[in-house]
Amino acid sequence: MKKTDLKKIFAGLGFIVLFGIIWLGCPSEDLTKGDAAEKVFVEPGKYDEFYFFTSGGFSGQVGVYGLPSGRHFKTIGVFAQHPETGYGYSEETKGMLETSFGFVPWDDAHHPKLSQTDGVPDGRWLFINGNNTPRIARIDLKTFETAEIIEIPNAGGNHASPFLTENTEYVVSSTRFSLPIPQRDVPISTYKENFKGTISFIKVEPKSGEMSVAFQILVPGFDYDLAHAGKGPSHGWAFFTCYNTEQANSMKEVNASQKDKDFIAAVNWKLAEKYLAEGKGKTLNGNYVHNVFDEHTHNTVSKQLNGVKVLDPLECPGLIYYLPTPKSPHGVDVDPSGEYIVGGGKLAAVIPVHSFSKMMKAIESKAFDGDAYGIPVLKYDAVIAGEVQNAGLGPLHTEFDGEGYAYTSAFVSSEIVKWKIGTWEVVDRVPTYYSIGHLTIPGGDSKKPWGKYVIALNKITKDRYLPTGPELTQSAQLFDISGDKMQLLLDFPTVGEPHYAQAIPAEILMKNSQKIFRLDDNKHPQAVKSEKQARVERKGSDVHVYMTTIRTHFAPDNIEGIKVGDKVYFHITNLEQDWDIPHGFAIKGLNNSELLIMPGQTKTILWTPKFEGVYPFYCTDFCSALHQEMQGYVRVSAANSSTPILYNIQK
Amino acid sequence: MSGMYFFPIWSIELGAPQFPEGLGFYIWLDKMTGFNENDLNSINGLNHYIGMQAIEPDSIAELKYMPYIVAVLIVLGVAAFLINKKSVYWSWLVLLVIVMLAGLVDFYLWEYNYGHNLDPRAAIKIPGMSFQPPLIGYKQILNMKAISLPHIGGILPGITLLTTFYLLIKSRKRANA
């Protein structure tokens, strides 16, 4: 053998070994090809293209993120007390969590929904539902704070909410759990006779955004699941899925899954308005509480309300039609044109797509397949536009890219399935990690989607991140949908369980984002607008401390004459008028939360000292070079002492 | 010259990383205003660390009488135009220069006092350091870059001065020729 031959053999072997290392070393599934990192990289100091709002699920909060980076900016306390800012603890905000059951400092927040004008998100408000103690909250997108919470009477489980009509005329609500309406003590086994559902329309005042319960529709005792309002030609209608048309009251897992088809209820709300104007609405008792936060007085106004106008579909022909939809449908989504109504039959093998124009024809020609409790059921064949075959297992929700495609989440098969509207053909599919629930495309439920990305909202993450004991995070997965094939770019953990989410171009919100509260506009009754007005006043066993903060001191910062058992109200006004300079307040043994007071804002926290002694208080938000010095003392004397009220003001 | 009532005379800009949105104030004939609504407030807040007095436009006497001085100048200028005699123009010009110089000296003295008259109990004390902003130009004061420049209302009388001077010289040459 020649030397050169040996060389060739060694070289060949070397090549094979090298090739083998590369071959084996490569992951079998290369999900992010090449430019994913580049596509999500937002240069330090630069802004994301979209705001992304996720529901906090069981945390009762809303998360604010940027896309495409996935960076987390803020967590908004909505239905949950938020000790970071004092929301739900301070005297001003406790009222936001008042309900007809008293103070309920938590809820299960599912579906954030941006207000719309002409079917397009306008960036004014974000609505979100509380599922457990039925409520709807409105978040002001100037301040990114909860501005209003309204309770829904005669309801159990506000799940199909707060989907809204194309000009935010109404946000809707419905009962996931049917109940005896009005509530009364009956055996659970009398479900079929006694249990009813309600569909509620909450009016939104166009200027202020303030909500009021306009009317309710009494509906058969099914489980109403999700909703979407029509748009364009179908504006004036709203669609609600329902399951448990079996009307089971136990073991619903099996007993509510027997029928081949349940329904999508098509509700003609314009007709409902007409019936109400004709006086068809009957007043039904039902207690509920309405809480509005006034950004000028920095206080909540809570109102106890009773009674709501109710329409009975049996007395209001044409108000509701049922569209038969296979197997316990979950999501119901209306495409940008307003013509197609997509059902997510979570136990079905296909995705049924109803046609609005066919539905109108079927109603006209009375193509009914009998009725359910007096409500006409339309013939399936008369309303169906098409069925998407091979659409994954457990299809739940569908969003649209505005380019003629729909994207459906499939929970059981953990994937997003992309299909074409009109041909109903599946054109692409990608796996998600794992068990996707909702999915979001910027503007993907509106008349004019911005497209670009789809975000999967996953329930289970298992091995996707560093483990954190038994409780793991949920996740959002970002896919680029600008090409023919969906491309995974990023996944990032989210606060609480993200059910639905919404995304909107940053430029729409950024320009309105408020920097400070103007001191001039501060109409808080206990505000003090200069240090000269700071003071301490005793009224019986209530002590009111009118305190100011400015870099870098409290005024007053030495207080004496407080007695054990006093109710001490610290009314603190932040005199700063500079962006991003909040001050904090905390005192040793405070049984409430701390306060974070934004520039120009006044907040009050109640402290009831239990023991004699001297108590330090301090600023909790690193505000300046002398932040550590921003502190003071309160002297607490015995309940029967005669220590006079004494306080100091600097200068 | 009347433009002095409609535009700031001077601007003082303070630059620091924490103020990406800009921070500074304009000096008008009769008032001081921040670049942004609350800038004066912010500047006063920052300056208390080093013991500088707060800027309170209400307590600055110049802002009260300056509009009248300028008004008198304008009236005299119009009068000079009507009289239309070279000697009167020259006197008016000299008066304008005196007022402008006096204004600058007064401004410098105010700045000197502002930068030197420090509270002895200030939290941050740097021996030998004053915080006087520059009269014109740029100066690094601790973490702040201070830029002080005449604004439109300050440039206008300068232009008036130069054009009047130029026209007078020109007419003299013409007369000589």
Shape estimate of chain A:
globular
Structural class of the secondary structure composition of chain B?
A: alpha+beta
Which protein chains are joined by the largest interface, and how many residues does each one contribute?
A-B, 11 and 10 residues
- Give the uncertain stretches of chain A in residue-range form: 17-28
The ordered H/E elements of chain B are EEEHHHEEH
Distance between the termini of chain B: 31 Å
Instruction: Please indicate the percent range of residues of chain A in DSSP E strands (runs of 2 or more).
Output: 35-45%
Strand content of chain B: 5-15%
Largest sheet of chain B: 5 strands, antiparallel
- What does the radius of gyration of chain A come to? 29 Å
DSSP helix fraction of chain B: 40-55%
Q: What is the makeup of the main sheet of chain A?
A: 10 strands, mixed
Helix content of chain A: under 10%
**Total number of helices of chain A:** 8
**What is the number of independent domains of chain B?**
1
CA-CA gap between termini of chain A = 101 Å
- If you compute it from the alpha carbons, what radius of gyration of chain B comes out, rounded to the nearest whole angstrom? 19 Å
Mean pLDDT of chain A: 94
Average predicted confidence as pLDDT of chain B? 89
Distinct helical segment count of chain B: 4
Number of strands of chain A: 45
Describe it for me?
By secondary structure, chain A is mainly beta. In chain A, 10% of the residues lie in helices and 43% in strands. Chain A has eight helices and 45 strands. In chain A, strands 6, 7, 8, 9, 10, 11, 12, 13, 17 and 18 form a ten-stranded mixed sheet that branches. In chain B, 19% of the residues are buried. Chain B has one domain. The chains are: A mainly beta (651), B alpha+beta (177).
Brief summary:
Chain A has about 650 residues and is mainly beta. Chain A has eight helices and 45 strands.
